Structure formats: C-alpha cells, structure tokens
Request: fold
Amino acid sequence: MCEYIILEDFKIDKYIYDNKNDLWYELQGDYYIPCLTFPDKKEQPIGVWGGRHLRYLKEYRKGTYINLLTSGRLNAYLAEIDKQAQERFERLVEDMKQAQGITEQLKTENQLEWVQRLNNIRACARELVNEEIIYA
Reply:
C-alpha cells in the first residue's frame, strides 16, 4: 500500500543560482528556466574579419559560439578579433611591399604592374590572416 506524505512547510525558491554555469534560474510552473538577458552594453561594429570569424564559429565551433552569445560577450569578442585581424593584415601588406620593392615610384611608372603586385600581396596577406586568426 502506498503512503503519501504531505509537506505543508515545503517552500520552493522562486529564483536559484547555479555556481557551475553562473546562471540564475526562475521557477515557472514545475520547471526552473534560465534567466537569460543580454547586458546593456553598447554594440561595437563588427567588420569583415569579425563577420568571417562569426560564420566560422556558427558552423564549426557551435559550443564556443553559444557560450559567447549567452554570456553576452560575443560582440566584444568579435570586435577584438576584427581589430587584431585588421592590424595583422595591414602589417603583412606593408612588410611584403617593402620586401618586394613596391614603391610609389613603381606606381607612377607602371600602374598596371603596381596594381597586379599589390593585389597579389593583399591576397597572400588575406590567406595568412585567415589561417592565423579567423579560422584558428
């Protein structure tokens, strides 16, 4: 025979905090639902590099993407990646231009060759930045 125990003084908290994942939970019906709110931070602009890294995260690193999104750090993270990638790209282009002797004099003497060589350098620098920062 089953015996039922009635707990009259049993109180359930409306909100609980989980130290494992640093989230608050709210009681709704019989279930605790995570209280997910985004912080009131100013959105930083995300450039080309940040957009590429975002697509990479969504497709190949879903866990990292979800963690950054739910913690409210995604925008700041992508802005930092974009800044690092842009600075690295510009440094690489300048270093390669100096190493290959591409100068303003070449630009005035033979614009077509200057454009071809500069486009080649930019393509190489883009590949390096993608490999080192964006898809790493």
